[in-house]
Amino acid sequence: MEIPRLLDGRLKFRHLILVDALSRQGSVVGAAAELHVTQPAATRSLHELEDILGVTLFERGPRGIAATVFGEAFTQHARAVLAQLTQAGRHVVELADADRGTVIVGTHLAGSNVLLPRAIARIKERRPYLTVIVREASPEALLLDLEAGRIDFIVGRLTVPSGEGMVRRKLYDESVELVVRAAHALAGKADVDLAELMDYPWILPGAETALRREVEEFFTRHGFALPMNRVETTSFLTVRQLLLETDVVAVLPSLIVRDDTRIVRLPVALDPIGHSVGLTLSAARTLSPSAEALIRNLEEVAAGMTATA
Asked: Cα torsion at 24, 30, 36, 38 (round to 10°)?
């Protein structure tokens, strides 16, 4: 097989954008809707790209499409190109006006309640015209956004070491605790058994998270199945409101509830469940000045939180 000629003018940016959308949506219909084009137009563009490359990128099936090994590889490269172009445009804008700029940060439950808001408040004092966009999603969805350049970096739990195109920087370690509202019947008790909690409703991390798998292992080690009466979410706003208004038991990182007197921890040890909170960045991209500035503020805030703890 000859090396495809990708610089002869036939390959367009719309092909790269389409491949990214197809990989995420899993169907031509979904990708076409996202890109605001007709399904025939999306299909035609995909055929053009496959002709340029000389391989099949997606297998068609009754339930949609699935990327072939060629499709997976090319999607990764397409996302890297799109990310670099997005970064280049923003970098030029920031060089033209050093006091402005935009940084897009992804976050999930760990790190989203204390660390990130404090860092944003600090940087806005110094650079009031800097726009900070926060996107909350599951860790897996955020990694896809990071790969495609839709976000600059991720703040949250670190579950795996650096590798596969990602760099991870630890900011601090944090424990995980069982918590309830201060008015809960078990609040203030010196000794609580896990068995006592099984009759209460629970809030658990989403099934797609590493913390959820560790919680499942915790229940198994103690001879219990997962609570049947449960809500699964990684949205802190949802968790907090349910905690304040009902008798749910929640699994949360300790710093999230440390400064809220309305929520108290239960004396049930979750060892060895714990985690490191930090940054996840793309190894292939240079950060913009705005992103670097926010990271410096995150590091300063994390250092202060560690000293306080």
From this structure: 130
Domains held by the chain: number: 3
Q: Is residue 309 over pLDDT 60?
A: no
Structure tokens at 143: 């990694």
> Any alpha helices (H) in 26-114, and if so which ranges?
28-35, 39-53, 69-96, 109-112
**Over the chain, what is the mean pLDDT?**
89
Q: Output the six-digit token pair for 271.
A: 């060892």
Question: What tens digit of pLDDT does each residue of 160-171 get?
Answer: 766 778 999 999
**DSSP 3-state of 5:** coil
253 part of a folded domain: yes
Based on the fold, state whether residues 71 and 202 are members of the same structural domain.
Answer: no
Distance CA 15, CA 49 (A): 6
Task: State whether 64 and 92 are in the same domain.
Answer: no
- Rounded distance between C-alpha atoms, residue 173 and residue 24, angstroms: 32
The two three-digit tokens of residue 19, written as one number: 């491949």
Scored b (16 or more CB within 10 A) or e, 203-233 reads bbbbeebebbebbeebeeeeeeeebeeeeeb
- Evaluate whether residue 8 is within a structural domain: no
Instruction: Please give the residue range of the domain that contains residue 167.
Output: 81-172+276-308
* C-beta separation of 245 from 183 below 8 A: no
